[in-house]
Design a protein that fits this description.
Pfam families: BPD_transp_2. It comes from Kandleria vitulina DSM 20405. This protein is mainly alpha-helical and 291 residues long. The protein has one domain: ABC transporter involved in vitamin B12 uptake, BtuC, CATH 1.10.3470. It has 11 helices and 4 strands, in the order H-H-H-H-E-E-E-H-H-H-H-E-H-H-H. Strands 1-4 form a two-stranded antiparallel ribbon. A two-stranded antiparallel ribbon has the order 2-3. A hairpin with a 2-residue loop joins strand 2 and strand 3. It is globular and about 60 Å long. The model has no long low-confidence stretch (mean pLDDT 89).
Length: 291
Amino acid sequence: MDFINQIINGLSTGSMYALVAIGYTMVYGIGKMINFAHGEIIMASSYFALVGISSLGLPPVAAIALSVVLTAALGVITEKVAYKPLRGKGSLEVLITAIGVSYLLQNVFYLIFTSSGKTFPDIMPQGSFHLGGLHITYITLITLIISGVCTGVLLFFIHKTKMGKAMRAVSEDAGAAQLMGINVSSTISLAFAIGSGLGAVAGVIYGAKFSLINPYIGAMLGIKAFIAAVLGGIGSIPGAMVGGLMIGVAESLTISYISSDFSDAIVFGILILILLIKPAGLFGKNVREKV
């Protein structure tokens, strides 16, 4: 039963990675770029929720809603200010800008909140329950439910709404979509907003799960979520979800049966392995380019 418990814990952590990975994959699928500042935007969401609860006295649900709105706005502002002027430029310029935005956000929150860790309020029920021989914490169960609901709502939006269909059209061929009257710029901004908003949920879950946040938590969280997106096939939302869950389970089993010292190494090893065996990822498609 201990093995099953570790699988469940891994799925809980992995669902958090998956929400962040979806942000990476949406921005890449629609804007054809990697937002390497995404992890720092998630970090910001944790502080937004913390301020909402501790300083403004908001109830947890209202604070989470505030965090989602502010984080989505931060994602859109980042896209408009840092990335929009670089459309049509080379990938190197975008990469350097993303790294610059990442360090900028880290240092802004360092100046405001200092580098010392801040205790995140208990906003989820503590304790656990037993189901047969399984030992499941309430935080684990709530994390899985929230992540599943968010993913389901996103998939419904993408496939069943007018804006979702516009996003799919831009992802397939931005030029043709623009000729059909779709505002490509607004669609890319919407992708940033949705990806950042989902990431905000992951940021709140992170704070509730680990109880301590600082300006640097987004770095490793963002890297692991990016690995999850690559593993699943960057550009594929179901792939990002599956990749996140796989990374979470691998990490949990490594910590439990090998050593926590090797958990990050195993995750990076998975990235190297998938790039060697299937570079497009589990759900990705190889795209031929004319030269």
